[in-house]
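Example 9 (inverse folding). The structure is encoded as follows.
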């Protein structure tokens, strides 16, 4: 645990927390002086301190106390599941049976339901200086999903300043499974918004959505419009231009990654700080990536007060939203007793 994070969490003692709500915290370090902090509640990525020249930048958003983490609704750094993103009408059909899910957003399910994995205490195991594994058992019927799902999430920090998150598990019934990490990034390490960052996506198509941000089932070619990030551009350059952005009050859209990214060797996305001193590259085995520019972050608790709209950008790797109801999308159903095995890496490079 870094001094910064120890101090940040000390405020929790003022309300004498119970054992159930007080998190256990873990720090991983590398040879370059980079460190990340994690907590077992939500298997959450709490901080990410990257040395840039003579300073260390905390490049992800977070809260100052366990009490604030319990109150916030933005899923800061949490492991999200059993199904990240949205499922239409809080239901899906599989093998002739219809499953009704926990409904927690406008009659739909988002990020696993009202009591998703982000709110659970995960069991921490296999701890070393640069890696920690969290495990969780989700019982049959949890939030309406079928089957008992056994999971592990491993965070590893290597000496290339790369954070790899590996998701592994299996289920005793067929079930949609889609885990992601919901970190919000601000590579400036300051209170300025994310809109001056440069973003590039290795994606030719994005998911069309209706007025509730539920997929229509259509994939739209970016074709040089305001949704096109195939060439690196400032996030705010084309903000709110199209009707689909105005519905979401910014970017909150899933992109289908191009096929060459599927083995996590080709860059799926890259993000560059406004001062051009720090770059983050994203590699993943997952087929999609949700870009969310923090359109509703205003008022969420921060480390020093409250966040503002667009304080950070989330780059959530995973299956496409509503895939259980969209047969043309990549199949998100994990077969009975089949292995769930995915990973996402966030690599940080000092540019100057």
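The amino acid assigned to each position is listed next.
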């Amino acid at each position: 645990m870094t001094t910064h994070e120890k101090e940040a969490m000390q405020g929790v003692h003022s309300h004498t927390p119970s054992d159930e709500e007080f998190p256990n915290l873990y720090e991983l370090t590398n040879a370059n002086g980079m460190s990340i902090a994690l907590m077992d509640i939500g298997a959450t990525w709490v901080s990410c301190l990257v040395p840039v020249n003579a300073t260390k930048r905390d490049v992800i958003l977070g809260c100052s106390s366990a009490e604030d983490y319990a109150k916030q609704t933005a899923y800061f750094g949490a492991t999200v599941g059993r199904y990240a993103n949205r499922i239409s009408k809080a239901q899906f059909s599989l093998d002739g049976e219809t499953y009704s899910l926990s409904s927690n957003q406008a009659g739909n399910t988002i990020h696993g339901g009202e009591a998703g994995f982000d709110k659970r205490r995960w069991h921490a195991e296999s701890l070393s200086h640069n890696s920690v594994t969290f495990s969780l058992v989700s019982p049959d019927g949890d939030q309406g999903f079928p089957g008992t799902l056994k999971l592990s999430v491993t965070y590893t920090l290597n000496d290339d300043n790369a954070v790899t998150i590996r998701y592994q598990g299996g289920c005793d019934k067929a079930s949609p499974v889609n885990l992601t990490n919901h970190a919000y990034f601000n590579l400036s390490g300051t209170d300025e918004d994310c809109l001056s960052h440069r973003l590039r996506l290795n994606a030719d198509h994005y998911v069309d959505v209706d007025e509730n941000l539920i997929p229509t089932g259509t994939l739209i070619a970016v074709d040089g419009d305001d949704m096109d990030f195939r060439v690196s551009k400032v996030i705010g350059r084309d903000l709110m231009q199209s009707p689909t952005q105005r519905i979401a009050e910014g970017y909150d859209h899933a992109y289908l990654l191009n096929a060459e990214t599927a083995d996590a060797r080709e860059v799926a996305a890259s993000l560059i700080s406004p001062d051009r001193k720090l770059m983050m590259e994203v590699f993943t085995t997952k087929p999609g990536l949700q870009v969310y520019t923090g359109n509703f972050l205003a008022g969420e608790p921060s480390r020093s007060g409250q966040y503002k709209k667009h304080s950070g950008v989330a780059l959530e790797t995973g299956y496409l939203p509503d895939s259980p109801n969209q047969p043309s999308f990549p199949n998100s159903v994990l077969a009975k007793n089949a292995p769930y095995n995915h990973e996402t890496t966030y690599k940080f490079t000092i540019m100057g």
